[in-house]
Amino acid sequence: MPYRFRPLSVLCAAASIAAALAACSSAPTPLYQQEQFDAAASPYARTFHAKSDATCEAARRALLSQGYVSSSPRPDTIDGSKNFQPSNDSHVVISFHVVCAEANTEGTSSTAYVNAVQDRYTLKKTSTSASVGLSILGSVSLPIGSGDDSMVKVASETIPAGVFYERYFNLVDHFLKIDPARHDRKVAKAAEKEHVAPLPEPAPTPQGEPMKMTTPVVPTPAAPPVPVAAPASAPAAAPASAPAAAPVVAPASKAPAEAAPASAPAATTPAPTPNTAPASEPAGSTTGDAS
């Protein structure tokens, strides 16, 4: 008889061991083992053909257009949040965090890295009780109850990659295409190409000498004429009425001295006296004075 119960006990032990192994094998995989850090394209990033500042500006406008409260703690970082109220006792907040970085050395492309976190809150009520003693009535205490309602954070999770991020990236691409700053820069560059004047051609120089740029020769205006001083005027001629030196009893040098001007130089020679006296002067005037 005792030998008949031995196989049953062995079977029970084997079954318990198998159940234990099955329970261990069904345990969930730790979360840190799910992170692969693959070098392939990340589902949380997308590359745009624009500079990093333009990409960040489009990311900010995409959040603002959907009711998110946006802030820019740094030039290459955009943060945004939006509140949801699914029910009276629950509250949900979605927070965006965007970082823009250059995708190449030329600066013509940039990558936007996006991460969205969902925080869930639940309303919880807390009741408290207190007692008040009245000395007049003795040791009588009256219980007083009070309640306090508060929102408690019960969950926080990063939104997994999928259609949610695809819609956001498409909206960022839309705002990049209609960015007025990029449009104005293209128009300005086209206008510069049309109105830029060509540089003058360098002047030909012998071999081995540096090239020189030719500059237009501006004619020099002629100098104004210098006024020339007027020549000194010749001494005035003696009046024709002066008497001849021979018949005049008075000294001959008196008449030229009176006729010459005061400013005439001393070196000038007196004008020649005419040979004949004027007809208007009486011939006997001199003799009368002498008598």
Automatic annotation (TrEMBL):
Highest taxon of the lineage: Bacteria
The UniProt keyword set, sorted, is:
Signal
Annotated region described as Disordered, given as residue ranges: 186-291
Q: Does the keyword Signal apply?
A: yes
Where is this chain compositionally biased, Pro residues type? Answer: 218-228
Record Pfam families: DUF2242
**Where in the sequence is the signal peptide annotated?**
1-22
Q: What is the protein name for this chain?
A: DUF2242 domain-containing protein
Record organism: Ralstonia holmesii
